[in-house]
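ok so for the tutorial part 2 we go from a plain amino acid sequence to predicted structure tokens. step 1 is just haveing the sequence, like this:
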Amino acid sequence: LESKLEDLNNEQAKSQSHIKELIASTELIEECYKSQVSTVKEELENKKKVLDVANEEIDVLNDALSKEKSLNETLKGDIALKVLEKEKLQSKVDDLTAVKAKHEAAIAKAAADIATAGITLEKLQDEITGHVEREGKLQSEIVALTDLKDDNEAALAKAAADIEDATKTVGCR
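step 2 — the prediction. this is what the tokens look like for a chain of 173 residues:
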């Protein structure tokens, strides 16, 4: 009987040790996931800041493009007037034509910059989506590990109660 009791006590100690190891391992994994989630959140915030700056730059470029288009239209009207006065004002027409070319180049550059910013924006949005999905998966894993920990603790409590009942039963005989 004492041998059985000793075996049960040894079995209980082994079970408790194993459960403690499982709990410690679960807690380490949970901390790792929490750290990863924190890092992902920080990365998302940084990406969002970059995205906000890119959006502001796009707005500035759109305003500049609009102004350049307006200036270009004004210049086209001026050129039409200058053509009528060509004989008197030929040198001024040449100057305005050069200015027009500069403005069109600026418009083309602004359009190219907007296109590049749009591509960058799409890439950043894809990255943010990926990070959000990863964060969701990590949160699901944390919940699953927490549930596993709770289940292990409940199993430990039940095993301890069973051992206590068995010890009482063995002690009564």
